[in-house]
Amino acid sequence: AGTGLTASAPAISSPMPSVCIVQGNQDLRTKAKIRVDQSCCPFGVVDERNVLSYGQVYVRRSDTSEVICGDVIVVKAPAMHPGDILRLRAVDCEELRESSLFDVIVFPQQGPRPHPNETSGGDLDGDKFFLCWDSRLLPPRSCQPADYRPDSDMPPARTNVFEDSLVANRT
Predict the structure, then answer these.
(1) In 3D, which of 21, 143, 167 has the Cα closest to residue 82?
(2) CB 148 within 8 A of CB 117
(3) Over the chain (171 residues), what is each successive 10-residue block's mean pLDDT?
(4) Other beta carbons less than 10 A from residue 28's beta carbon
(5) 3-state class of 170 per DSSP?
């Protein structure tokens, strides 16, 4: 009735199952599409009118003309550090509403460091950002963003913690 395989059987103890798990994990990351209703993936642009404060963003959807307001998360893929997930405040701003900006996320000019750079070292040369305003998915707080400057003393982020844990558990 059983398969005859035990945890000590060569097929189970060989690295092959780990390779299959890692491949499955990679497929999941690249092929899985999870729909999140209160979210979008807009391009990032700068606030040319300089009306947003550090910590604020402006987003207006073209399908509903709705201006998103409240706490949001902003992430640029690939997010490899906990600080790549930014918790910001989406605001309605009359000056930006007049500019007819739709389906973009407007980042402030102000602040010690550009928000796009705080999430995976992004910039505004065509980067897309994941934006979510579903309160159930908002983290209670943000972590300190990683320093993505080329001259940073920070060690490189771990690119695949899952694979690293498999290697560590095999020895």
Answers:
(1) 143
(2) yes
(3) 50 50 61 83 95 97 93 91 93 92 95 91 91 93 82 52 42 44
(4) 9
(5) helix
Give the DSSP letter of residue 48. T
Within 10 angstroms of residue 144's Cβ, the number of other Cβ atoms is: 9
Q: What does DSSP assign to residue 44? A: E
Residue that is written with structure tokens 């307001």 in the block: 69
Write down the pLDDT at residue 30: 67
DSSP string, 80-145: -SGGGSEEEEE---HHHHTTT--SEEEEPS-SSS-HHHHTTT--SSS-B-EEE--GGG--SSPPPP
Distances (CA, A) of 44 to 54, 63, 143: 15, 18, 21
- 72 by Cβ neighbours in 10 Å (0-12 / 13-18 / 19+) ranks as buried
Instruction: Give pairs for 119-124: CB < 8 Å, separation 24+.
Output: 119/74, 119/75, 119/76, 119/79, 119/84, 119/85, 119/86, 119/145, 120/75, 120/76, 120/77, 120/78, 120/79, 120/80, 120/81, 120/84, 120/148, 121/146, 121/148, 122/44, 122/76, 124/44, 124/45, 124/46
- In whole angstroms, give the CA distance from residue 24 to residue 11: 18
Task: Name the residue type at position 10.
Answer: P
